[in-house]
Amino acid sequence: MGSKTKTGLAATYLTVLAFLLIFVAFVTPCWLETDGKIPNPKFIRIGLWEVCFNDLKDTHHFYDTRFTGCWWVFEEEYYIIHDLLLPGFFVATQFFFTLCFTLLLVASFLTALYLCCSRHHDRFVLLLLVTGADLVLAAVAGTIAVIIFGARGDGRDWMPSWEHNNMSWSYALAVLGVLALYASGFLFLTEGRRHHKRRLREREGHTSEFGMQQRKGPATHTTI
């Protein structure tokens, strides 16, 4: 790492930070949470993959089943309230944030390669550009996810007592992670562009030096 530039190291640290933030947001169940201002709320909290209820009954009253505790959102017993639990906007949020996390996993591997790769390697510039592009794509997917959830997550047509439901810390970490992805992605792209220009200058220098040697030609010696 000693041979890496400050820009490259900053991009690496931001990638690590983004991974931690996105990972925690991805696995924790606190994207939306009740504010605790009402007694015995039916809805407690929800993340991308887990939801917590307190004696929640089917909203259409077709069944007498009640749900209490924290469950996986795709639990078979939840088919009764499938339309409440998995509306289109929430499935879209899951899809785009999963895509964001998957691209980030790829970028993490590429970042590790960057730390091990010499800047003199033939594909070093390509590695920087691909890493940067991957991170920006992950950021775009994450942006779509947080915008969708931010616009619809606390709406009155989703969880019970919507006026007492607020975006929680998992969602905040997701937003911060997406911002870190943009920063790290653009820094890697900037670093790749810088190394590309440096190689072009070096090639031009070698070409001009070779041209001068060709014009001079071989040295001639005369004997008397």
UniProtKB/TrEMBL annotation:
<keyword id="KW-0812">Transmembrane</keyword>
<dbReference type="GO" id="GO:0019991">
    <property type="term" value="P:septate junction assembly"/>
</dbReference>
<keyword id="KW-1133">Transmembrane helix</keyword>
<feature type="transmembrane region" description="Helical">
    <location>
        <begin position="95"/>
        <end position="117"/>
    </location>
</feature>
<feature type="transmembrane region" description="Helical">
    <location>
        <begin position="124"/>
        <end position="149"/>
    </location>
</feature>
<keyword id="KW-0472">Membrane</keyword>
<dbReference type="GO" id="GO:0005918">
    <property type="term" value="C:septate junction"/>
</dbReference>
<feature type="transmembrane region" description="Helical">
    <location>
        <begin position="169"/>
        <end position="189"/>
    </location>
</feature>
<dbReference type="GO" id="GO:0016020">
    <property type="term" value="C:membrane"/>
</dbReference>
<dbReference type="Pfam" id="PF13903">
    <property type="entry name" value="Claudin_2"/>
</dbReference>
<feature type="transmembrane region" description="Helical">
    <location>
        <begin position="12"/>
        <end position="32"/>
    </location>
</feature>
<feature type="region of interest" description="Disordered">
    <location>
        <begin position="200"/>
        <end position="224"/>
    </location>
</feature>
<dbReference type="GO" id="GO:0035151">
    <property type="term" value="P:regulation of tube size, open tracheal system"/>
</dbReference>
<protein>
    <submittedName>
        <fullName>Uncharacterized protein</fullName>
    </submittedName>
</protein>
<dbReference type="InterPro" id="IPR004031">
    <property type="entry name" value="PMP22/EMP/MP20/Claudin"/>
</dbReference>
